[in-house]
Design a protein that fits this description.
two-stranded antiparallel ribbon, about 220 residues, mainly alpha, Arp2/3 complex 21 kDa subunit ARPC3, globular
């Protein structure tokens, strides 16, 4: 899902660049308020896991590439603002060191995979919890992971169409079609990791640390 240089026009690069800067600045500010020092090692470990998972890319005809995200998992553990910071850091390192995703489209990649993916997944997760009242946790986290990657791919498709790189129909079909399949893996990984950490009270512990830090 990393968009390479040359796929978006100037207006798209500038617009998403400004939006990306704003999103990261907002997330950093909110993270400083809600984050406790005890959470930093876990955040670093989560970022390393996401970084490794995102390095596995699947070529997609008619668009760019597909890969796992991990934003929903980070959002569930730390909140969407922290997830945006983690995802942005991963994307910046990948672009600068591994040339995975272009520099001129870094803002677009942050908006699509960082902001849209994290907040869409977290929104579905919270909605599922409120409707199911804690039951079927694995189903809720699976759907959250699946929706996050499909939503992010829709964002990429819209930007490609806005830049006249591909017609909207082709971009939507290519991106959402493949990512609907990749999303199954995303959902399974998210559900398994969250379930594992929940059983060991890691998730509740992280939330308790946030509440203590905010109090």
């Amino acid at each position: 899902m990393h968009i390479p240089d040359g796929f978006l026009d100037v207006k798209s690069c500038v617009t998403t660049g400004l939006l990306g800067i704003g999103a990261v600045a907002y997330s950093l500010r909110k993270t400083k308020i809600s984050l406790s020092r005890k959470q930093v090692p876990m955040i670093a470990l989560t970022g390393a896991f996401i970084f490794a998972a995102q390095m596995v890319n699947f070529p997609i005809a008619g668009a760019t590439s597909g890969h796992f995200l991990g934003g929903t998992m980070a959002s569930i553990l730390f909140g969407p603002a922290v997830a945006v910071v983690i995802m942005s850091a991963v994307l910046i390192i990948q672009a600068l060191v591994f040339q995975d995703g272009g520099l001129t489209v870094l803002g677009a990649n942050i908006i699509c995979t960082g902001v849209i993916g994290s907040y869409a997944g977290y929104g579905v997760y919270r909605l599922g919890l409120s409707l199911l009242r804690g039951r079927a946790m694995k189903v809720t986290t699976f759907l959250a992971g699946w929706c996050s990657i499909v939503s992010a791919s829709c964002g990429v498709a819209l930007l490609l169409a806005w830049s006249n790189t591909f017609p909207l129909g082709i971009a939507i079909k290519a991106m959402t079609g493949w990512h609907s399949l990749i999303g199954v893996g995303e959902g399974l990984i998210t559900a398994l990791v969250v379930a594992y950490l929940t059983e060991r009270n890691v998730v509740d512990g992280l939330r308790s640390q946030q509440e203590v830090h905010l109090s």
